[in-house]
Amino acid sequence: MTRAIFGATGSVGKALAAEWAAARLPFRVVGRSEERLRRDFARYGDLVEYRVADFAHERQTRAAAHGADIIVYLGGVPYTQFHLHPQLTRVALEAAIAEGVGRFVLQGTVYPFGLPQTPTVNEEHPRNPNTAKGRWRKEQEDLVMAAHGRGLLRTAVVRAPDFYGPGAELSYASDMFKAALEGRRAQVIGPIDIPHEFIYVPDLARTLAELSEKDEAYGASWNVAGPGMITVRHFAELVFGAVGRKPALRVAGKTMLRLAGIFNPFLREVAEMHYLWTNPVQLDDTRLRALLPGLHKTSYEDGIRATVEAMRA
Questions:
Q1: What CA–CA distance (Å, rounded) separates 212 from 158?
Q2: Collapsed DSSP state (helix, strand, coil) of residue 61
Q3: Given pLDDT bands bounded at 50, 70 and 90, which one contains residue 49?
Q4: CA distance 141 to 219
Q5: Structural domains in the chain?
Q6: Cα-trace Rg, the chain
Q7: Are 283 and 222 in contact (CB under 8 A)?
């Protein structure tokens, strides 16, 4: 069976490659730069094959999908260009269908749910996005599941909360780790005393690897939660404590994000998602744990310690 990671050079793609390599399963990595692909995955030797593709280009994407049995789609876009998510996913889906790929797994987010209507959010919770990013992510999910509904290929969606871990440069938590190691204040989004949820990247990758092999996983969406809720303050205490320092934080609330966003397009986009810090989405993954009873959840203490060690190395 040929497994392919579309969008392989992000932290989840690297962790997924490590999962398959540890199991001695061959896999294909797909990204825009062959140089970067070979730099990131050369350690796996003959287990890995390389395909260069920009998902905006149909011919390149079809070549990347050719001969694959499973595609795990992790394609990312700049935070200021979320409208590209459904566009690029459509190209990848059409390539997979044209090339006879059997299975397609999308790694998604909590954004399509919008404001939570219940204390915990399971897969049956209404998808009622209250932001443009949420609407584009919902459109992306709908494209993936519609392909399954039409019998074109088997698809699944896996939704995860904010992630952190080795190489997770785009995580909201990443500056805490960098600041702790560099001896400076960390830039964080507030309020910092409302519980939030994070997942350790290797745990998410292991879930994607196991779920992609399960026939029962397809034709459905799945939530994967972290080890529990934690405040940003407590998370920061653990991060700084791992390097023997007391936390030093510079907290930006919604007003500050909006003001900074006048000059910084990225922060303007972050301000749109601020509700996640005041009305957090706590995922319920009961259904997933029934399908994968051995599902592992790394504690925040262990995951943060491992991330700090990896960054030091």
A1: 10
A2: helix
A3: very high
A4: 12
A5: 3-164+200-227+281-297 (3.40.50.720)
A6: 19
A7: no
Nearest to 114 by CA among 287, 288, 272: 272
Task: Supply 139's token pair.
Answer: 């459109």
The token pair that represents 275 in the structure block? 């509700």
φ, ψ of residue 125 to 5 degrees: the values are -60, 140
DSSP string spanning 168-222?
-TTSTTHHHHHHHHHTSPEEEES--SSEEEEEEHHHHHHHHHHHHT-GGGTTEEE
Provide CB contacts within 8 A for 144, sequence distance 6+: 73, 89, 93, 104, 106, 155, 156, 157
Tokens of 147: 């392909």
Question: What's the pLDDT tens digit per position in 165-206?
Answer: 999 988 889 999 999 999 999 999 999 999 999 999 999 999
Q: What angle (nearest 5°) sits at the alpha carbon of residue 85, between those of residues 65 and 107?
A: 65
